[in-house]
Amino acid sequence: MSRALISTGGGRRGEASRGSTVDMSTDLAGIALPSPLLTASGCAAAGKELDAFMDITQIGAVVTKSIMLKPRAGRATPRMSETPSGMLNSIGLQGPGIESFIENDLAWLAQRGARTIVSIAGESVDEYSRLASKLRNVGGFEAIEVNISCPNVADRGQVFACRSESAAQVIQAVRRNSDSRTPIFAKLSPDVTDIVEIADSVIRAGATGVSLINTLLGMVIDTRTLRPALAGVTGGLSGPAVRPVAVRCVWQVRQAFPDVPIIGMGGIRSGQDALEFLLAGANAVSVGTAVFNDPSAPLRIHQELAELLAERGFARAADVISYAHRPEETTPVRSAEDDGGVEDWDFISE
User: Fold this and answer.
1) Cα–chain-centroid distance for residue 274?
2) Exposure on the CB side of residue 54, measured as CA atoms within 13 A
3) In whole angstroms, what is the distance from residue 350 CA to residue 329 CA?
4) Which residues are CB-contacts of 239 (< 8 A; sequence separation ≥ 6)?
5) In terms of residue numbers, what domain contains 265?
6) Would 226 be classed as within a structural domain?
7) pLDDT score for 150
8) Closest C-alpha among 94, 70, 66 to residue 80
9) Looking at residue 9, what is its pLDDT?
10) Would you tell me which of 19, 76, 178, 275 could form a disulfide with 231, CB atoms 3.0–4.6 Å apart?
11) Would 168 be classed as within a structural domain?
12) Average per-residue pLDDT in the chain?
């Protein structure tokens, strides 16, 4: 595994500090990353815009905006609305289509030297199959994130992640049409009764790992117009408001599947937030909404996380992954009337 050593000292904005205190490298399904910090799909296009504010080769990877088979205009405007501690978006998977993406965005990322995780989305199982086949023929990326959970579609029946059977069908199709060496991450929705059940279905279907979580379905009504604020009525809620839900999902899936790679996301805007996800069991974390007001957020959070790890005595970021799941430690404590027999000791948590 390549090692990314970072000091807790200062550095110029948009540039990682040089030093040798904390090893920030991580392994994600066999992919050696210099940092556990990734971009989140949908919030940074293919990384070109963010590269003006930070060196995208210094973070773990760029997760591209979900790409579909054909060009797509997305949903009608207005399609974004600010909410307390977050925002609603109803973009509707707008994009140039897979051919343009490969020729322009994927080629640029390869030339730039960025590690890339390609996010794909489709309206049918066949579309996912065809997307996977096209990507198999070009390469130039480290993994595929299969977006089966976008809430911003007109037909809620297209949210494949809401049912175990449909989620599994999509993952089977992508796995069958992808290079067997390419890791596949299924991006799941929190809008389900049992996230572990859905995770189990996609893992059994061939997913290497899971991405947790996509946005929650929400709605805002404009009290001036007395109408829904979004043209599409509902949208995906993101930002700090969803973080506790996301951490809970990561925790539950990690408990059920101790060895499955997890990318955690949902309201991460500081090193402390990232640390919480790693402690819950995420192998890497994606930063999304935070980049709208701080385009260099992934690299800043990388730095903050390194400082927090150093303060807590961790030499490697990898050592903190799932650390909150460790067995509770106990220490024998003598009571005042103890006669010396260990059997009479009380035990307290450290």
Assistant:
1) 11
2) 31
3) 6
4) 83, 85, 86, 87, 267, 289
5) 5-74+93-215+237-349
6) no
7) 79
8) 94
9) 44
10) 76
11) yes
12) 88
DSSP letter for 103, please: I
The amino acid that residue 300 corresponds to is R
Decide if 52 is inside a domain.
yes
Query: How many domains would you assign to the chain?
Result: 1
Q: Is residue 177 part of a domain?
A: yes
SS3 194: coil
pLDDT at 159: 81
Whole-angstrom distance, CA of residue 167 vs CA of residue 125: 10
Judge residue 310's burial from the number of C-beta atoms within 10 Å of its C-beta, 0-12 exposed, 13-18 middle, 19 or more buried: middle
CATH of the domain at 253: 3.20.20.70
CB 167 within 8 A of CB 201: yes
**How long, in residues, is the chain?**
350
pLDDT on residue 7: 44
The rounded distance, in Å, linking the Cα atoms of 260 and 209 is 6
Residues classed as catalytic: 150
What pLDDT does residue 137 have? 87
Rounded to the nearest 10 degrees, the angle between the axes of helix 125-136 and helix 164-176 is: 30
Low-confidence stretches of the chain (pLDDT < 70) are: 1-20, 151-158, 330-350
Residue of 123, 114, 104 whose CA lies nearest to 57: 114
Q: List C-alpha distances in Å: 246 to 210, 211, 214, 242, 253.
A: 12, 10, 9, 6, 11
Strands (E) in 256-300, as ranges, are: 262-265, 284-287
Q: What is the DSSP string of 32-48?
A: EES-SEEEPTTSSTTST
pLDDT for position 345: 37
